Every structure is written in C-alpha cells, then in structure tokens.
Task: structure prediction
Amino acid sequence: MQIAMVAQVDEQDVIFNAHLLSTFNLNLTGGGTQDITFTDAADYNLGVTGPALNGINTGFTTITVEATEDWTITIECPDFQPVTGTGTIPIDNLGVWCAETGTYDFGAEVTCAYISPLTIHGMTNAPVELIGNGTGNAGDATDNMFTLNWEMGTMQNASMHTTSMFDQMATGDFTTGDYTTTATLTLVPVP
Result:
C-alpha cells in the first residue's frame, strides 16, 4: 500500500485601497519681502522697477503651485499705510505682471491677462484673478512655476494710478516717509 501526500494550495488575498486626496499647495519660493525706494525726481516722476538698489529690491517674487486638480490664483492688497509720514498711498500705484518659468505656458495650460509691463495689473483692494486655468493646469511645481514682476508709480496703463507719485504728493495725498502693505495670493480649486 502506498500513501501519497498531496500538497494543498491555500491562497489568501491582500486588498489595497489607494486614497488619492486633493492637494493644493501655493509655495512662495523667493521675494517674499520687497523694499521699494524712491530717491530722486526721476523715481517720483516715472516710477521704479526692479531689481535695483534704488527702486524695487528684489523686484520680483517667485511662486510654484502643486495641485492635483485645476486651480486659479487671485491677488488683492490694501492701500499702503504709513509707518512714518502721513496719508495713504493708493494701492493702484503698485503693479504686477507675470512670467511663466515652468513647463506650463500662458495661453495653453494656464492663463494670465498680465504678461508684460504694457499689460500690468494695477493692484486692487478686491481679489482679482492673477493666474487661471487654461487647458488644464493640475501639475507639480516644475509645471507651475511663475515670476511676479513688481513696479511702483510707473503709470504703465489705465489699471495703474494715472498720476505720478510727485503729483499725488503735491495734492497732499501722502508725504515722504515709510509705508507698508501686504499683498495676498489665494490659491483656489476651479469649480
């Protein structure tokens, strides 16, 4: 009599559940503080840009976006308030225009109406779309990399204050001194 051992096969399953949650990160990677200096008549008459020691230092802010879904960025800023000096500087004296430095391009994956000094956005107290969704802007920081270029008092187009800093000072809107404000960038998902 022969006895044969038969190997039995026993199986167990391991179940994997992947949970892919939405991620929205706006990263300020440089230029979080801008020092704006008006030193001579040309600065007060024509405005200042950067980067410059007499002008705006650094003159630009770099940001990235990491998002698993399409998004938009708004920007808003209150008027400059005095630290020393008197009066307030209307915020539309400050302007911003954007450049894409990642793999996504304006007019394709992302949109922006303010892409040169000629199309600069004069800042406002209310939120305004700065960078928006084009054909689909979900992606990582290498896709969504941008430079925000700052100007003050340049009167570049109708969205910026239309009179020079000198003329505003002459009418008593504000005096020489130190002033401050904070621009707020807000990243929101596209509905």
